[in-house]
Amino acid sequence: MKKRLGCLHAHYSNIEYIENALSSYDIELIHFVDPALMYRVTVDENFKEADAQNKVKEQIECIAQCNVDAILITCTNYIAILQEEQLSISVPIIKIDEPYFEYICKIQQPLTILFTNPATVKGTMERLNQYAYNHQKSLDIEVIVINNTFELIMQGLKQEYNQEISKFLNKIIKGDKIISVAQLSMVDASKEVEYKTSKPIINPLDTLISSAVSQLKIDKKSVVI
Question: Which long-range contacts (CB under 8 A, 24 or more apart) does 38-43 make?
């Protein structure tokens, strides 16, 4: 029986990434998008952390009622806000950043991680450092935020957003420096630069797909000849 994956996104642009990445697999994807929560977390000073936690809890529990086999959270901020111990569901939760953290923790050299959303940095890095600590790994990481860029994707200006990321990547991708982008929205630009320069750029999508396929035990679609 075909598996069903519920996907929670902070922005509509993330749907395409997951759809394309899993298009060759026999799985049904149901997408849930709430950009308002991300906006309130970053802009509304009256929106407290407890309010955000309650909102994410409601969203996850609502998705769990949709007969899904697992829930994928693609927003690192949502993951940082989520208090799993407060959930009353048995549906497994796949977090986009955990396979990414696992991969990063295997790297022995200095690493530069790029963000476009400043509000995502603190929660992501705290989770990464905690993951490294739990697995007794040491990290040598430089964090860089590409400023004045994230608002472009929030305004639907994806082409302009990708151009800004590509421009920045081309500027810093020199020598043997290991570079990673931390957000799903940065994957297209990073893959374009990777292709043109032949220099690998780590991203959270590639690590997620191999992990999700293994965890959900999903097969490739049958090829009809």
Answer: 38/10, 38/11, 38/75, 38/77, 38/78, 38/119, 39/154, 41/77, 41/81, 41/119, 42/117, 42/119
Residues 137/208/141/76 CA torsion (nearest 10 deg): -110
> Does pTM surpass 0.85?
no
Each of the 225 residues of the chain gets a pLDDT tens digit; together they read: 788 999 998 888 889 999 999 999 989 999 998 877 777 766 767 777 787 888 888 888 889 999 999 999 988 878 888 877 777 788 889 998 899 999 999 998 899 999 998 888 988 899 899 999 999 998 999 999 999 998 898 888 999 999 999 999 999 987 678 999 999 889 999 999 999 998 999 999 999 988 888 888 888 887 655
